[in-house]
Fold Carboxymuconolactone decarboxylase-like domain-containing protein.
Amino acid sequence: MINFILNKTLRAHAERYDYDVSYMQDILTNDLSAFTRFMGFQTMAAYSGNLPADAVFAARLRAILWEDCGPCTQLVVNMALEAGVSAEHIQAVIANDTKLLPQELALVVEFTDSVLAHNLYADELRAKIQAIWGQKGIVSLGLAISSMRVYPTLKYTLGYGKSCSRITLNDMTLTPNISRV
């Protein structure tokens, strides 16, 4: 019965975001204990602390772009839109065009890319972010960045990471800029 209810929840998520949840259904079907732990992880991945939606989604988008070839990125784009992040900011984050972003968002984009590249420049950027949002903001960004890497990795591990797709934003098709810092 619990599997039925959880699967119904997954199907609702799939329908809401036009997202393939087959890998989650696979986990649910094969290991309920693993699935419940994965659902616990979902609460961490959704945490935004004291960050505004556009900042947390800037970090999530840059992080998912480092790992994914489309479907997970599209999901994060859809969630960002739902959270009220402007299409212009989403487009600039995906294009890595920091000139089109407010200074705080450009800082988050540069910080995320530096963290993922293990670039020491992240230390300088961290201090600037800490001045804006404090250590709580740094923790929130850490959770946002690290959690986005889990989904594509899990999908590829389970054999579901084979389909690439274009990223759409309203009526535009976007090409990500994944320049490694």
Notes: The first helix runs from residue 2 to 17. Strands lie at 167-169, 172-174. The mean pLDDT is 93.
